From TrEMBL:
This is DUF1566 domain-containing protein. It comes from Bacteroides xylanisolvens.
Length: 232
C-alpha cells in the first residue's frame, strides 16, 4: 500500500497530527488547511470552496494537453499564474483568479493541475475524515457521490474551449466548457518537516516516478487513458 499522511497546518504554520491538534483544544478555525502528503506530492488544501467558471478567452492560455500529457504536470502553480495573466482583461472572477488571490496564511495558493486534483480525489475519504475530526462544516469537505455538485476545476487546459477537471462522485477525469461553473479548491505547496510539531510550510515541488504514480492511481480506482510510457 502506498505511503500517505493527512495532517493539519495550524495558524502558527506548524504541522500537527490530527489527534494532537484536537488534544490541544483546537479546531479548523485555528488552522490554515489540511496537509495531504503522498510519495508524489505534499500540498495544503484550503478549507474554503467556491463556485466559479473557468473563464473563456477563446484561446489557450497555457498549452493544449490531452489526459496523458496533463497527468505529467505535478504542480499547477505556473499554470495558474499564466492563466491569471491571460485573464487580466476578463471581467469578474474565474477559477484561477479565485485561487491566486486567496491570501490565507500568506501562502501563494493556486488552482491544482489535473494530477494534483486526481491525487486529492484518490484520498478524498481520508481527507474528509480528517476535516470532520477537526470540526469542519460540510461545506469544507471534498464532494462525494452524494454531493449536489461534484465537478471540480483544474488548471490543466484541453483546448481553447474546454478545460480538465475531476468528477469527485466517481473519480472520473473529464473536460467541459470553460464558461461552465464548477467547484474550485485552492492548494499550496508544502515541505513536510522531520518533526510534526516544528515544521514550517515552504514552497516545494517534488517529482517522482510517473509509473509509480500511475500505479497508485490505478490501485485507487483510476481508469483513465494513462500508459506507462509517460516521460517527465
Amino acid at each position: 500500500m502506498e505511503k500517505h499522511s493527512i495532517s493539519v497546518l495550524g495558524a502558527d504554520k506548524k504541522q500537527y497530527e490530527i489527534a494532537d491538534f484536537r488534544a490541544r483544544g483546537m479546531n479548523y478555525t485555528n488552522a490554515i488547511g489540511i496537509i495531504v502528503t503522498t510519495e508524489f506530492m505534499s500540498r495544503i488544501l484550503a478549507f474554503d470552496t467556491w463556485q466559479e467558471r473557468w473563464g473563456n478567452t477563446d484561446r489557450v492560455l497555457t498549452e493544449e494537453q490531452n489526459e496523458s500529457v496533463a497527468m505529467q504536470t505535478f504542480s499547477g502553480l505556473d499554470l495558474t499564474k499564466r492563466i491569471v495573466e491571460g485573464q487580466a482583461g476578463i471581467d469578474g472572477m474565474t477559477a484561477a483568479k479565485r485561487c491566486w488571490n486567496y491570501q490565507k496564511g500568506g501562502f501563494q495558493w493556486y488552482l491544482p493541475c489535473l494530477m494534483e486534483l486526481g491525487v486529492l480525489c484518490a484520498y478524498r475519504d481520508e481527507i474528509n475524515k480528517a476535516m470532520k475530526e477537526i470540526g469542519c462544516p460540510d461545506e469544507c469537505l471534498l464532494p462525494t457521490e452524494d454531493s449536489d455538485e461534484t465537478w471540480v476545476w483544474s488548471s490543466s487546459e484541453n483546448s481553447q474551449d474546454v478545460s480538465w477537471g475531476v468528477y469527485f462522485s466517481n473519480g472520473g477525469f473529464g473536460n467541459t466548457g470553460k464558461y461552465n461553473s464548477g467547484m474550485v479548491r485552492a492548494v499550496a505547496a508544502f515541505q513536510p518537516s522531520p518533526s510534526l510539531l516544528t515544521g514550517e510550510a515552504k514552497s516545494n515541488d517534488c517529482l517522482h516516478s510517473d509509473e509509480a504514480l500511475i500505479n497508485m492511481l490505478r490501485e485507487r480506482g483510476y481508469k483513465g487513458e494513462l500508459t506507462k510510457t509517460l516521460t517527465i
